[in-house]
Write a structure and sequence with these properties.
The chain is of the alpha/beta class and 287 residues long. It is built from 13 helices and eight strands. Helix 5 packs antiparallel against helix 6, helix 5 runs antiparallel to helix 8 and helix 6 packs across helix 7.
Length: 287
């Protein structure tokens, strides 16, 4: 039998806090680890996600950074504004969060939607971003098939949050389909069973609407305005876009570094935390 994977065993022995604070009037859930006097790092999950996406990365990063992971606006246990969510709304909430914790400038690393939001933050508010990591990031293209798949899986998981529907949504993220990901599934199932979450998911899925997505997409001019040192991190088995798209994204960002992690899907930070943490820290620490 393969070793059982548990969110708690990933965090066991890690000095961290879970809490809530008000960010722009929104009750916001966070995990924090590391000395508050060290440089700040914020980790941003993907669409429909939550802080547990980064449980395997907190300990390694807390050695060097005051590390924050948040449930983004409308996600997880963070407040829901009750309207379709576009990138500008996530960016405004992120800035409010940084202000609430007294951080003027942070390293920002985002996966999928989190990468899209991180890139937009770096474009519009360069004074708030130290170094930038775009991890299988969204925002550079609109693939109708991928967009339909995300909506179908996500709405199935919240409309009828059975073990099977939530597990299907989780497995879609991963390269290794043989694992059951029980603890991550249980965590997400609890979130998706919250009253009103099906309505919240429709707001989260706004960026999969072709018209809304089009006005939020980032193009060469946008990426070209990024001044923060940037790592674009892709994977061999990303379900949203292949390595070519990651390389194209990196080519639009001045001086960006591009790396590919093998045998990973959309969550390399979870699927291969050892390789991810080493590469991520090498870049964030100036490598």
């Amino acid at each position: 039998m393969s070793e059982y994977e548990s969110i708690w065993s990933d965090l066991q022995g890690v000095a961290f806090t879970q809490g809530y604070l008000e960010a722009g009037g929104v009750r916001t859930r966070y995990l924090h680890a590391g000395d508050p006097g060290k440089p700040a790092l914020v980790l941003l999950h993907g669409s429909g996600g939550h802080v547990e996406a980064y449980v395997r990365n907190l300990e390694a990063h807390a050695e060097h950074f005051s590390t924050w992971v948040i449930d983004m606006l409308g996600h997880g246990y963070t407040g829901r504004p009750g309207h379709p969510l576009e990138v500008k709304h996530y960016v405004a909430h992120l800035i409010s969060f940084l202000d609430a914790v007294g951080v003027r400038k942070a390293h920002v690393s985002g996966e999928s939607l989190g990468g899209w939001v991180a890139a937009r933050l770096a474009i519009d508010h360069p004074d708030r971003v130290e170094r930038l990591v775009l991890n299988t990031a969204g925002g550079s293209q609109a693939d109708p098939e991928v967009m339909r798949r995300i909506v179908t899986l996500s709405m199935a998981a919240v409309t009828d949050p059975t073990w099977e529907t939530v597990q299907a949504r989780i497995k879609w993220l991963m390269a290794d389909k043989s694992k059951s990901y029980d603890d991550v599934v249980a965590s997400r199932q609890r979130i998706y069973r919250q009253p009103g979450f099906a309505v919240a998911m429709r707001d989260i899925m706004a960026l999969q609407d072709p018209q809304i997505r089009q006005r939020n997409l980032l193009g060469p001019e946008d990426y070209g305005r990024i001044t923060a040192p940037t790592l674009v991190l892709w994977t061999s088995d990303d379900p949203t876009a292949d390595v070519t798209e990651g390389r194209r994204m990196a080519s639009m960002i001045p001086g960006a570094r591009f790396e590919v992690l093998p045998d990973c899907g959309h969550w390399p930070q979870y699927e291969d935390p050892k390789a991810f943490n080493a590469l991520h820290l090498d870049f964030l620490l100036g490598g």
